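Quick check before the chapter quiz. The format below is the same one you will see on the exam, so make sure you can read both the input and the output lines.
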Amino acid sequence: MAQSGLSLIDKEDCLVVKIEGSSRVEAAVLLKEKLAKTKFAHEVVIDWGEAEHVDASVLQVLLALRQTLAEQGLSFLVDIDNSKVRQYLNLSGLSEYFPLRSQPPNPPMPEGGHA
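Here is the expected output.
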């Protein structure tokens, strides 16, 4: 099983959440801690192109981030997609909440939209 890699890369016009390897509960906790210390001024993009697995706990943190960004009028997009992750999102009905940069951003969250 591949190691989990998680990093936040602050670029001039966006914050990149880079997820690599197999991201499970430990990665979700780390991501939540890192995001809690982050001020969002630009869009946030996800790069999970090198991910082997993204656990539901990581997706939950990302959905909460998406909601926070939507409340601030900021975009949340997948910049570098991954076919394995996208297939899981399609099967779970979550694909529309993780739009690709080439798709229209941010459909509304469901009522009571907590992730």
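If your answer matched, good. The mean pLDDT is 89.
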